[in-house]
């Protein structure tokens, strides 16, 4: 204890005044913290992403229903959070997803002053995957095109030519098409990153766009001409993939590797492709190199362009 009962040092008085004015974290319960986050502007914007986020955070709130949020300021909370997500250790992807959403709400709580800190940063992950070697080859596409209905063929083509995620593919309309001095391009604000992507329209993509009925705005539709959902797009292609006897590893998202090669051929640099895809330069290069090696008809030209693009970044 200070033996000076009435300190008169000006610096002490300034520090004391600052300390008593500093906002203190509110004593709220964990479920309340979760509810506040889900009602905030920081929550996921895309409907499907929000539903996933809500599902995991409600599980978190249920598990810690009688715990005040301030327990996450204690070092031991890291172990408690790891015990909670260990319920899904049989499924590495779900295990990691639980931790990702929990940390997101805790980061938000710190930013909002509800917590002074937390100890759950950089939780170890179980799910490790490298899908750089999973791509749709020309022979894969031919197998689908030989048996699938038109709406699936159009979906696969546009996915392979643009590299867009399912949530962005299903919202493409005629209004997304822009004229350029050299031809046409697609202009779309992506769901995940919120950035505007400009994608060259290749001849294959132009054929799909031009074949779209004049009374339809959406470029991609379901079998009955209605609006596609992300789930139906992914599931539809999966069903015809299985009927064609192709690898079960192939998914709609893996069309992005094919698209990366198309974009390189269309004149985009490696850094532009990586930015568009949301990949690292190394991953983009690995995907394109693998695609070229499993597509003999394109090997020489693609690898030459890839080498030139790598040199320009050196």
From TrEMBL:
UniProt-listed InterPro entries: DNA_brk_join_enz, Integrase-like_cat_sf, Integrase_catalytic, Tyrosine_recombinase_XerCD
Gene3D superfamilies in the cross-refs: Intergrase catalytic core
PROSITE patterns named in the record: TYR_RECOMBINASE
Superkingdom of origin: Bacteria
Pfam family, one: Phage_integrase
Span of domain Tyr recombinase: 122-304
Presence of keyword Translocase: no
Keywords annotated in UniProt: DNA integration, DNA recombination
Protein name stated in the entry: Tyrosine-type recombinase/integrase
